[in-house]
Amino acid sequence: MNPLGNLVAPELELRLLDLLDPKVQYNDRTHNRIQIDLLSITPERSSFHKNMGTDELSVILMPRGEEPLNIEEQSTTNVFFVTDPFYGDSEERKAGDARPPLNCTALHLHQQLGVPLLLFEHMSPSLEYRSSGTGFYTKYNDKDDIVSLDGICHLSQGLDDRPAYIWFSYGVLASQTATYVIYNCAANAKRLITTCAQRRNPRELLRPFAVDLFLIDDMLETWTVKLSKFRTKLITYEEDHALFSQTSVHLNALAVAELHSLSQNLNVVVGNLVDYKHRNEFFLSARDRYLSLSRPHFDVAERSLVTVTDSLGLMTSRATVLMNWAANYNARTKIRINMFFNLTTQGDSRTNLDIARLTTKIAVSSQKDSSSMITYGDICAFFIKEIMIAAVTMFFLPGSFVCAVFSMVFFDSHPGNAGRMELSVAPQWWLFPLVTIPLTIIVFLVWVIWRRRRISALRDVEVRVQPVAEDASSSSTYSIEKLGYST
Question: What are the TM regions of this chain, as residue ranges (predicted)?
Fold first, then answer.
């Protein structure tokens, strides 16, 4: 079989031919652990085949030229749910592994159903990048007649789960004929689809793109639940006032780190909701293309078109509201981050101010301690020397002053009868000792009184300085310990 025969877009898929390794069909040891469920739907009834293996799939999808086994003779829509833990975003693969070739299941789906290699390229990220996107294309037969509208897309299922990859093929020659292959379908979406087919009216799933509505609604519900959890965490930071009254550098750092993680997750939610709206636009475009291609062959019931369009419109509106709230929560998260950052900055400023005040107190205390150490002993020795000098000065000062005033009145020298110099004393000589002695005594008394008051004042200073120094020392120790710098 020509490997180029199944390439719907050679310009995009030719470089992926390395994924078609025929040896895999014989060397694949993982096919027994791959689970395939098949839901077949007709206008009257539906059937669900669970836990099909690769061998059963190969019987259903027999090679061209052989007679295939009809699952349901009147089945018009088949949905294959594939759970393959070994291919694509596999937990078995390590980061950095090269894109593996198609395994046995993928080869059967590609060769017998025409699942394009582009879908498997999306599922299997290469070493450093992932090719993703949505698209639909028109499929022709050997006579260049349009036979179907095929499309691929992927849906994110949250922050922790692997994406769901979808391929659909809607026949345009007969109404209500479609085939779906869904890798990693969400469990809840799968349950709702099978419930609708088995317990409700199976015709509801025959509406064009009704299966996709279940998938994208479940995706929106998943992100709604995620967003509600993020909102609860944000409100905890907004309403818990104890977080602000008992702040510390360590707690603020933890809060900022958690809020940064919350902001990152909210950005992821916004991005996925934007992608979600693009998916809805994609399905609307694919539906319009399907209607234009099928109109020459049959008409689609108006009810099928209106109900699908209405549901897509409602889900798009819900996504818009969620996206707006996610952006709102993200902005509020950034406000909380700035607030915690400002609280940390203010705490650092207060700490620096406390350290500055403490340094000032320590400097003042040290100066007072130094002053108190020389208050009495050194000052006494200094004043003894001053006393001696002052005593000599004050002893001669009154006499000098009196002599200066009365020298030319009380004493005189002149030659005597014998030719010798004689000293004569005036009769008022007694005025000199009478004035000098009391004045000297008065000066000494004034000096003694001044000195005693000075010494008393210095002792009072010493008494006042000592408690202040002790208080400064104790307060300094308390402040240091309070700030966490005590040794």
Answer: 387-410, 430-450
